[in-house]
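Morning, I've got a small favour to ask if you have a moment. It would help a lot if you went through both lines with me. Thanks so much in advance, here it is.

***
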Amino acid sequence: MSGRLALQPGGYRAFEPAPLPPEPPLDYDDELRSLLSAADRALGRLDGIATTLPNPNLFVAMYVRSEAVMSSQIEGSQATLADVLQFEVDHTAKKPIVDVAEVVNYVDAMNHGLARLDELPLSLRLIREIHERLMQGVRGGERTPGEFRKFQNWIGAPGTKLEDASYVPPAPDFMIDALRDLEKFLHDDTLPPLVHAALVHAQFETIHPFGDGNGRVGRLLIGLLLCKREVLGKPLLYLSHFLKRHRTEYYARLQDVHSGRWEEWLAFFLRGSC
């Protein structure tokens, strides 16, 4: 197990994740080693592209916007890349303005995070700043942007009650300890960067520390961590396209880690990175 189901005062059980790295250690079988090698090569080629283009900043800007659109669509946004570009030109959009604003906020949050990496470590403070940018003026923005939750949340279909939830993250008191452990792990550079990013993303989603926007913040962390580890000079990993196409498996693999099946999640993550 990668944690435990703990009985709470309200009579429900919440999942309390164990600190990273996983224990027992990851088992790198032939498939995982092959996938990691292929993903590393693909990432190296991707990073090299940005250094050979005549206008790399434009290329990167479009990549970030494409990632923002797909990451937001995973959460239900209907905005397209064309809607976002139209809005940036003249502040009009075919889709409801809130959908476009969510993507624009995502781009702003990513750019803010990258700029702050020159001043701050990748930390809980920076994660809160990113969340505040992400949630300003959009759905869920009334739920204390930039602050970790002080209430119990849960995951399930719309209208699902706590007792019927498909997943219940840790209660607020335990959540703070889990976040501190995660912050320490953010600075552990002993693992391959892609493995590091995969574990961080899964653990962040398991902790689910905000009232809303956890998925988008968790996916933002992937690009920021790879830039911090200097594997990418710019956030060019367009992973959300793969995650959206395989959304059902994405959520299933994240659930796998709660029973200690880290290798299945890692294999899925690496396939998306190739």
